[in-house]
Write a structure and sequence with these properties.
- The protein is mostly helical.
- It has a domain of 33 residues.
- It is 45% helix and 0% strand.
- The protein has three helices and no strands.
- It is elongated and about 75 Å long.
Length: 86
């Protein structure tokens, strides 16, 4: 690949960055292109994500949780009053 008409200032900045990283200019540009244009990772699906979390807990011996105490059901809310438009 050849890049023509690259501004002198851009070349100078690449040269400086390459020297800071101990690389040639070519290697610096190559690494930057590889980093910036690598294929996007596919997002992990929810089921896989949950499975991975559960597996990580199983690896350390799991977690025992006490179930919350059950309470009687509450009465439903009455929406029939004038404040609700009926």
């Amino acid at each position: 690949m050849t890049i023509r008409n690259l501004p002198d200032e851009t070349k100078r900045l690449i040269r400086i960055r390459a020297a800071e990283n101990g690389r040639s200019m070519e290697e610096e540009v190559r690494e930057r292109l590889i980093r910036d244009y690598k294929p996007a990772e596919k997002p992990q699906k929810l089921g896989s994500w949950v499975r991975d979390i559960v597996s990580s807990f199983q690896e350390i011996g799991g977690v025992d949780l006490e179930p919350p105490p059950r309470e009687p059901m509450r009465d439903p809310i009455d929406f029939s009053g004038p404040e609700f438009g009926s």
